[in-house]
Amino acid sequence: MASEPRSNDSSEPEQRHRAPYFWLPNALTTGTLWAGFYAIVAAIDRNFQWAGAAVLGAMIFDTLDGRVARWTNTQSEFGKEYDSLSDMVAFGLAPAILSYQWGVAALKEYNVYWGTLGWLATFLYAAAAAMRLARFNTRTAVADKRYFEGLPSPSAAATVAGFIWFASKYELEGLTALVLAFAMTCVGGILMVSRFAYWSGKEINLRGRVRWVYLLTIPLLYMVVTARPGEAIFAFFSLYAFHAPVVWAWRKIFHRRNIRDGEASAKS
Q1: In whole angstroms, how far apart are CA 166 and each of 97, 163, 170, 229, 233?
Q2: What is the CATH number of domain 22-267?
Q3: Which residues pair with 149 in a beta bridge?
Q4: Are the C-beta atoms of residues 98 and 39 closer than 8 Å to each other?
């Protein structure tokens, strides 16, 4: 009597081992989607501080889902696509709508053309976020894991949401504040599709030995963010966003200077 054919797929034990944990990364990704959706609803209701906090919550969920997937060895193509769609809502649409709700209506009071520029700036941000995520997905296999090409969409979202959180808390008003908000939204979109290199931090081994000095920064950052969340988020992520073009310009200037000095010394 012939026995039933047995599968020689060596991944079956691994799949059985991973099965109980498949839901966990996707649940965290759903948290990212929920936080982004809530940020949009809060922005429509003009609760800008809650909208900014929701974007921060989306960043926490987005950081955890990838790490949990790697720790539990539950990466999948479905999870990758689901994560990108959730990121588009939380870090593409939510910051754009937040910026739009905070300032476009007010800009129209100054001039209809100002309102049109604000609308275009927010759309530019949303389109740039979509292109940034598409580029990231298509270049994952060949990209240098130590750096991101272009500003990551969560960091761009935190920069925009952090500024509006800060501005709404201190009730910043006037044309200058509105123009600055839309300028940051526009620049954030441009930086996402740029080729500037941003440190990813993925080479850090959390399971290895960590210096005690670095461990002290964790409670310090926690206290700062807890005490002044809007200010801390805006300050940290705006520095992260703008440091790459500043470093690029610095290197370009000194590289040209070194070339000129070398040519001058060669002629002498």
Answers
A1: 17, 5, 6, 9, 9
A2: 1.20.120.1760
A3: 197
A4: yes
Cα–Cα dist 62/84, whole Å: 10
* Cα angle 79, 14, 16; round to 5: 85
DSSP letters, 94-113, are HHHHHHHHHHHHHHHHH-HH
Residue range 16-31, pLDDT digits in tens: 445 566 788 899 999 9
Q: Where are the domains of the chain?
A: 22-267
- Residue for token pair 């999870």: 79
What pLDDT sits at residue 204?
Answer: 62
- Residue position matching structure tokens 């949303």: 126
SS3 148: strand
Model confidence at 257, pLDDT cuts 50, 70, 90, reads: low
